[in-house]
What does this fold into?
Amino acid sequence: MAGNRAKIDRRLATVPVAAQPGALDGVVEFRDGWGEVTRRYDLTTLALPRDVACVLADAFRHHHVASVPATQRACWQALQSFARFAQEDAGIQSIADLITAAIGRYIAWLDRQTNHAGEPRSLSGRANLLSYLRQLIEWTKRHHPSRLLQRIDFPFRVYSNRNAQPRKRLPEEQLKAILRACYEDIDAAWERFELGQEILRSDTAPAGATAELHRLVRDLADISGGVMPTRLNLVAHRLNMSAVAHRGGLRALAGYLHLTSETLLPFYIALAIQTAANPQALMQFRRDCLRPHPLDEHRVIIDWDKARAGDKFKRAQRRSFDRRRRYAAPNLVDKLLAMTAPLVAQSTLRDRERLFLLRSEKTLSVAPIALSTVTHGVRGFIARANERIAIWNRAAPERPRVLLPDFAAVLLRGSVATEHYQASGGDIVHVQQILNHASVLTTEAYVKGPRTEQLRRDIVARLQRLMVGWIVGEAETSATRRGTVAAGFAARATAPFGHDCLNPLAGTAPGTQAGQACQHLGGCLRCPGLVIPIDAQHLARILQAKEAFERSREQLDPQRWELLYAPSYRILVQDILPDFPDALQAPAAALAANLPRLPALE
It folds into this structure.
């Protein structure tokens, strides 16, 4: 019986790529783990030839299938930019015109673009637009090279110095002012939310609430299951709209029921400063991000994901905090969990695990906070806080408070990194561990700036003093710190410049003996045999030497310059230059401008 049984074909059936439905159309859809469409981009609506749109759409669909929505949206914006170029250039009529020369014209087109203020696009912005297009072209070259009829090459590092100008960094006093404003708003929002919860639990008006407010909050919660209803629902239920307006409107009353966009911003900014998290990664915080500390019962670990944290494996993003502090990050997370709990039931399955949930006033859906909401919300937060601080300063001029600066959420991570770098005494490895970077070069881009550069100079100067101490002894090092130099060390340092060699027969020059004429007779600045003709040519060389000394003074450690080169500079300025008449200054300066540049002293 077993021998007559039909054989089962267990081979996997493969479908050619060309036969797959939608493989070469211009519509790109991204789905979540439940099969729901999260993003949909139609490249046929762009000003691109049909075959070019289909090729780029297929690369877009496969290359960014696992990317976060923000990356997918950024790639779509890059495709929109390339479509505008193709429309203006009119040189790409089909896929055959997509060649290396077209990429070169696109780079030149990007360099000509300006923003709303009339300024050129930033180097970083241009590099990102070109990078997204390059990813799609490279994916097509690897998987379907036959679709590209011509060779396409991208230049290497077109915008190599795009991070030459460091971003603005907020100093310590401004960060503290921002945190103080956040904590004030958080206290007010939490007090209102707790009062609303007490109203929902009590049949009578609790302390701090009037009978009208008690009745109004309970009616609002009954209409939409604990979430602020829409205006149409309020009218349909014949709610007293004048009472709503008297209490500040729907936005103000929503704070009694759940988290709102205005009350969310202080939580977001405070957590961004305390955790030093990436702004986009902070939006993806999960509701189960708190972990107990394995050793300290008073500390709690915040654990979160970062989309770009790791190449071959994900590195955990973790920071521990002492819960005993009133405004510690775990305590803020607990308040967020309570204030967003009413919104969880009305969110989708993929969003219920998110910490920062908001109810959209336009779509009436509950979803995680968006980057645009943060961008616009920060402006309102700054305005409200500065208005409150101005009132404080008028009432208490003897104790003025610092106004909040004009900042963006993207500046917080770098500002916190800079403060950690200074607090650690210039330990960039310590900052690398806090920011969880795989390479210290990435961390350096975050802390790069004038303040950290000055800190590095101070560290180098301190190490130079230690090196001098190892050579000449601790006594001379202490004297150098006091601004004085030991006589023996000063003689050895200044003898090559002739500061103390007033006798050419003293035998102090290297390679000479007492009674023997100095080999450098006439070459030192204070040598009795030094003769300088009074003419424009020699004055030009003296002016050039003076400029070289002044240039080195800006680059070298002040104490080292004062020890080795300041005496020579003073001889030039105080003893030699006054002997030249003023009439020679102008022609000598003209000659000095054309002389070859002197080499650096060090």
